[in-house]
Design brief:
This protein has 211 residues and is α+β, with helices and mostly antiparallel strands. Helices cover 55% and strands 7% of the residues. It has 8 helices and 4 strands; from the N terminus they run E-H-E-H-E-E-H-H-H-H-H-H. Strands 2-1-3-4 form a 4-stranded mixed beta sheet, with helices on one face.
Length: 211
Amino acid sequence: MLIVHGRANSANVMKVLWCLEELGTPYERRDAGMEHGVVDTPAYRAMNPNGRIPTIEEDGAVIWESNSCMRYVCLRAGGDAGGLYPAAPAKRAGVDRWMDWQLSTLSPAERNLFWQMVRTPDAKRDMGLVQAAVTASAECWAILDRLFGDGRAFLEGDFTIADIALGCFARRWFGAEVQVPGMPQFPALAAWYARLGERPGFAKFVAPKLF
């Protein structure tokens, strides 16, 4: 049995659970991280020295980093994983670049928006950090808004794990929990986000309240 270690309300765990749902892959999820602890235990650190989530465990194989976890479950499914992870080199590279962009560019830009608006009590919230994060995030989302302005349905034409990776973070941008005055509107991006919302895995794992 494939085991996913991580709390369900983590965006990075959501990615993996949504991907598994798309594939119809059986798994067991075990709570870990924040209020659940576990991640600082010797047993967990032996699997994932970073003490972060998610971590996948299966038949002696241990995979960590959420995007690598998604790649793993797609590769174990075989072929192109039902289109989620295209086998053709150029198409696969197209998917990978967006997943790398999420990690390297989008996540750092939006981090303070999520942490300040969702995880920080009102009295301690730093609105300067929030506004800076809105500006930085908007620059990222504007790139996708222009991309979807050409009429494409998903990032690489068909739905892939790149849409899952970015969709989990778009949930933060569009969520009622993080709305602040003056946030830019992105119609084409919003239409893509609505398409993601029609997928059962999104409704099950990503749509619920953020925290």
